[in-house]
Design goal:
The protein is α/β, with parallel strands linked by helices and 245 residues long. The chain has 7 helices and 9 strands; from the N terminus they run E-H-H-H-E-H-E-H-E-H-E-E-E-E-E-H. It binds zinc ion (ZN).
Length: 245
């Protein structure tokens, strides 16, 4: 077996403590549900980190041992320290750490920083059906997903989604109320690969849905850094002699 992929599953982990509806679905927190599924893959090495831990659980040494970071946040976006956001961004752009931003993480500091846009969207929590359509069947993140899958109860996220045109679009969602949404978007930033995946409202058991978990597993594999040499930048000597002007 090749090198294992080291995954850090980050969750704000506030709503699970405060809101009984969320606690009922995720007694140990959404991060534990996501981590439990990833831990079943023998080639993944999985840890979790949460907002209330020191340095939000994302110290320099933990990030140095992280190939892919997943991010779920909602209420505390503005309370996440800029220093940690700088650190995560640097790890993505300069070291190629993969970043998977989930659901309400669309408004996180790190996602707005990475995309350079406002990242606002339309939303409605009516427990309606979401149908996730594969629009790039050959994409590694769509492997194992045939055509589409349904999420029985979901929060609607609708267009227009204020993001730059994604480098690759893997999924588009339709909702019972009529809206559509770019629900699976890939971005390349420096050496890093970033995937945004919208399903995951905290009061529904979406992180127990096998298709959703398969997408997250695929995204971990896709976004894990490649063992490529660092690009050469800065002032460069010519490769061939340049005749005098
Ligand atoms: Zn939500």
């Amino acid at each position: 077996m090749g090198k294992r992929i080291r995954v850090t599953v980050w969750n704000e982990f506030l709503e699970e403590k405060k809101d009984d509806r969320v606690k009922a679905v995720y007694p140990k927190g959404m991060h534990e549900a996501i981590a439990a599924s990833l831990k079943m893959k023998p080639d993944f090495e999985v840890r979790t980190a949460t907002f209330e831990q020191e340095e939000h659980g994302l110290s320099e040494s933990i990030l140095n041992e992280t190939d892919v970071l997943t991010w779920w946040g909602h209420q505390a976006h503005e309370k996440v320290s800029d220093q940690i956001v700088d650190r995560v961004q640097r790890k993505v752009v300069e070291d190629g750490m993969g970043l998977i931003v989930l659901h309400s993480g669309h408004m996180s500091k790190i996602f707005r920083r990475i995309t350079g846009t406002g990242c606002k969207l339309k939303w409605r929590d009516s427990g309606e059906r979401e149908r996730v359509w594969v629009v790039s069947p050959a994409h590694p993140i769509a492997q194992g997903i045939t055509d589409h899958f349904d999420i029985g109860k979901s929060e609607m996220y609708g267009e227009p989604f204020d993001i730059p045109a994604p480098d690759e679009l893997v999924f588009v969602s339709w909702y019972q109320g009529g809206e559509v949404f770019r629900s699976g978007c890939c971005f390349y930033r420096g050496l890093g690969k970033v995937f945004y995946f919208s399903p995951g409202h905290e009061t529904y058991p979406i992180y127990f849905n096998p298709d959703v978990l398969r997408v997250i597993e695929n995204a971990v594999r896709w976004s894990a850094p490649e063992p490529t040499p660092k690009p050469i930048r800065g002032n460069a000597k010519p490769l061939e002699e340049i005749p005098a002007k």
